[in-house]
Specification:
The structure is a single chain. This protein is α+β, with helices and mostly antiparallel strands. About 55% of the residues lie in helices and about 10% in strands. Strands 2-1-3-4 form a four-stranded mixed sheet, with helices on one face. Strand 3 and strand 4 form a beta hairpin. It is globular and about 60 Å long.
């Protein structure tokens, strides 16, 4: 039996979506973040030493990391669906976007979130101007240019084909949903600035499995 160890407001939402697309039987075991620290509870360490989500168990198998879980599920249960044929240009694009999502797109988004929390965190009044000055310099000198570069790249690529790997929807679109949704939630994606990404978001939201996964996972706040 497949069990998804699902942490609220985490990347395991993508795995829920893939499981719904696959139409396989699975169970969801829920975990809640600490309200103050926003960290995962210690109980997740009993499932996997890293204590993070997503973690998937399937019989004796325990697997972490979104990309690895997606590859396993598509290979084990996909029956040829959600992945382009081997040896095709679409397969290369599929592999690229599957790794790009976490390797390149997410780091600047995570840094932006961390610096936003630093900027808005309670602190002594005499420290606040220094902290805000540091955040401003990092944001203007690194984060904003990086985010603009990545959004521009994604916008151009998704303008070439309806889906990230090519003409057909694949698991690469599921993997890419998190960074694109996160960027959209932080007002970085608009219909005027990134019409291709904006249209792609509408396409994934229109897939029947997408809202079903949201119902299973609970409310999500990408911001």
């Amino acid at each position: 039996m497949i069990v998804l160890h699902h942490l609220n407001n985490s990347r395991s939402q993508r795995i829920l979506w893939l499981l719904e697309e696959l139409g396989v039987e699975y169970e969801v075991k829920r975990y809640q973040r600490d309200a103050k620290t926003m960290l995962a509870p210690p109980a997740l360490r009993a499932v996997h030493p890293l204590g993070k989500s997503p973690v998937l168990t399937d019989g004796d198998l325990t697997l972490a990391e979104s990309g690895a879980i997606i590859e396993y599920l598509v290979e084990r249960y996909g029956e040829g669906r959600f992945i382009p044929a081997a040896g095709t240009p679409e397969r290369l694009r599929y592999t690229f976007w599957l790794h790009y999502a976490e390797g390149s797109a997410m780091p600047p988004l995570l840094m932006a979130l961390v610096f936003h929390r630093i900027e808005t965190a309670p602190m002594p009044f005499f420290v606040r101007p220094i902290a805000r000055s540091i955040v401003k310099k990092v944001r203007e000198g690194f984060l904003t240019p990086q985010l603009e570069t990545h959004l521009g790249y994604m916008e151009g690529e998704i303008g070439k084909t309806p889906w990230f790997a090519g003409p057909e929807f694949t698991a690469a679109d599921i993997q890419m949903s998190f960074p694109v949704e996160a960027a959209s939630a932080r007002a970085a994606i608009t219909a005027e600035k990134q019409p291709n990404l904006h249209a792609w978001l509408k396409r994934i939201h229109a897939r029947p499995a997408y809202p079903r996964a949201l119902l299973k996972g609970g409310p999500y706040d990408y911001a």
